[in-house]
């Protein structure tokens, strides 16, 4: 071994600093396409857009890597060079109400290692109908209410965005009320005086319509009981409540307490709380005490899945007057994920006559935690004729450090930590 330069091997330790040591091809790719396309639908042709022939795609082992997700949204058709959908892509699940929905993927080529960042802009389609939080809205209004008095109604919610979101409302024609919509605030305005002796109850149908094509709608019944005066709606102490908590906090942990007061007395000033619009997922993660306004954790909070929540809370007095506040909750990351090492490629067997510095494998290291908790260090065992070279982002090249001799050593077991 002394004659062949293998008398001494040196320890190799590498650190992940996300340093790019190989240049990216200019002009990373960006595609826009509608959500809910069938699996196998074409997003774009990466071979054409990168100026590669199909033989190059295959010989360089072109593939799609998606970081930080358990789902694989797209793949490459090696016969055509098309980037195609591999499963259902739902914009609302990915991005909620954000106006822009972008999925970042990596297009990886080998020999030499080359990485292209691909931005997938998922466009909204009108696949959701407007929904009210309840099927029936119960209201109690005193007959002494003055003409022009307004009564708040919870707005409808549509998971779609932009033009596909709620655009207008239609109130069933009636003699007593008209509808007023201002800045997404929906109210009934009293057009003619109430008379409890003539009509104790009023049922109205309110319809919310979106702007999609075809147009979708949702309805709610407004049931009004005519009583005697309730002059004040509840008032929250804060317009916005903010809180933060570490992920994996125990169930029943108190996140924050909201509070509203009502200037009326008796039942008119008796305030109860409930969530306004929250997603089904958020509803399963948090609960609110109807009497105290205390919000608690009822599910597993995972920062890697979602790092913030926004919800509305409704305060209602004894006769149905409403007010709302907003609750913002930030989730802090804890170091609850171990780094994972992926062997992306390995030239096996390796010819013994390869030159020192030859790339024989590709390693990828990922940690789902964020910031400092997501930084990892990578090292390779001593006394082997190989080393790890940082390449692009969290990729490493496994390269030879000397001449291999099969007659001396026919195979190596390499440990990477």
TrEMBL record:
<dbReference type="InterPro" id="IPR015919">
    <property type="entry name" value="Cadherin-like_sf"/>
</dbReference>
<keyword id="KW-0812">Transmembrane</keyword>
<keyword id="KW-0325">Glycoprotein</keyword>
<keyword id="KW-1133">Transmembrane helix</keyword>
<dbReference type="InterPro" id="IPR013164">
    <property type="entry name" value="Cadherin_N"/>
</dbReference>
<protein>
    <recommendedName>
        <fullName>Cadherin domain-containing protein</fullName>
    </recommendedName>
</protein>
<feature type="domain" description="Cadherin">
    <location>
        <begin position="76"/>
        <end position="132"/>
    </location>
</feature>
<keyword id="KW-0106">Calcium</keyword>
<keyword id="KW-0472">Membrane</keyword>
<keyword id="KW-0677">Repeat</keyword>
<dbReference type="InterPro" id="IPR050174">
    <property type="entry name" value="Protocadherin/Cadherin-CA"/>
</dbReference>
<dbReference type="InterPro" id="IPR020894">
    <property type="entry name" value="Cadherin_CS"/>
</dbReference>
<feature type="domain" description="Cadherin">
    <location>
        <begin position="237"/>
        <end position="341"/>
    </location>
</feature>
<keyword id="KW-0130">Cell adhesion</keyword>
<dbReference type="InterPro" id="IPR002126">
    <property type="entry name" value="Cadherin-like_dom"/>
</dbReference>
<feature type="domain" description="Cadherin">
    <location>
        <begin position="351"/>
        <end position="416"/>
    </location>
</feature>
<feature type="domain" description="Cadherin">
    <location>
        <begin position="133"/>
        <end position="236"/>
    </location>
</feature>
<dbReference type="Pfam" id="PF00028">
    <property type="entry name" value="Cadherin"/>
</dbReference>
<feature type="transmembrane region" description="Helical">
    <location>
        <begin position="6"/>
        <end position="25"/>
    </location>
</feature>
<dbReference type="Pfam" id="PF08266">
    <property type="entry name" value="Cadherin_2"/>
</dbReference>
């Amino acid at each position: 071994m002394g004659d062949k330069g293998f008398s001494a091997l040196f320890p190799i330790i590498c650190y992940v600093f996300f340093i790019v040591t190989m240049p990216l091809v200019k002009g990373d790719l960006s595609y826009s396409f509608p959500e809910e396309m069938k699996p196998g639908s074409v997003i774009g042709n990466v071979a054409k857009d990168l100026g590669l022939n199909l033989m190059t795609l295959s010989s360089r082992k072109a593939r799609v890597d998606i970081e930080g997700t358990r789902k694989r949204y797209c793949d490459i058709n090696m016969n055509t060079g098309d980037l195609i959908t591999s499963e259902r892509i739902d914009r609302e699940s990915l991005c909620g109400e954000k106006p822009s929905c972008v999925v970042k993927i990596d297009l990886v080529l080998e020999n030499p290692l080359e990485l292209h960042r691909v931005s997938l802009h998922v466009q909204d389609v009108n696949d959701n109908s407007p929904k009210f939080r309840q099927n029936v809205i119960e209201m109690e209004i005193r007959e002494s209410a003055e003409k022009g008095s307004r009564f708040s109604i919870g707005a409808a919610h549509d998971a779609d965005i932009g033009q596909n979101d709620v655009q207008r409302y239609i109130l069933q024609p009636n003699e007593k009320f008209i509808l007023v919509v201002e800045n997404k605030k929906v109210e009934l305005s009293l057009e003619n005086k109430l008379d409890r002796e003539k009509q104790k109850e009023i049922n109205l149908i309110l319809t919310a319509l979106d702007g999609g094509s075809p147009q979708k709608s949702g309805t709610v019944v407004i049931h009004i009981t005519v009583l005697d005066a309730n002059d004040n709606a509840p008032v929250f102490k804060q317009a916005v409540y903010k809180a933060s908590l570490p992920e994996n906090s125990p169930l029943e942990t108190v996140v924050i307490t909201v509070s509203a007061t009502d200037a009326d007395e008796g039942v008119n000033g008796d305030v109860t709380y409930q969530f306004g619009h929250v997603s089904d997922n958020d509803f399963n993660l948090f609960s609110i005490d109807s009497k105290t306004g205390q919000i608690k954790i009822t599910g597993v909070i995972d920062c890697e899945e979602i790092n913030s929540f926004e919800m509305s809370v409704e305060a209602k007095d004894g006769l149905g007057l409403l007010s709302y506040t907003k609750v913002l909750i930030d989730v802090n990351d804890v170091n609850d994920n171990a780094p994972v090492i992926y062997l992306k490629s390995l030239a096996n067997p390796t010819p013994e006559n390869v030159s020192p510095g030859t790339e024989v494998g590709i390693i990828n290291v990922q940690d789902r935690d964020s910031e400092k908790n997501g930084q990892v260090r990578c090292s390779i065992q001593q006394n082997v004729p190989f080393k790890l070279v940082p390449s692009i982002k969290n990729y490493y090249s496994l390269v030879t450090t000397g001449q291999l001799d099969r007659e001396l050593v026919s195979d190596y077991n390499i440990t990477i930590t």
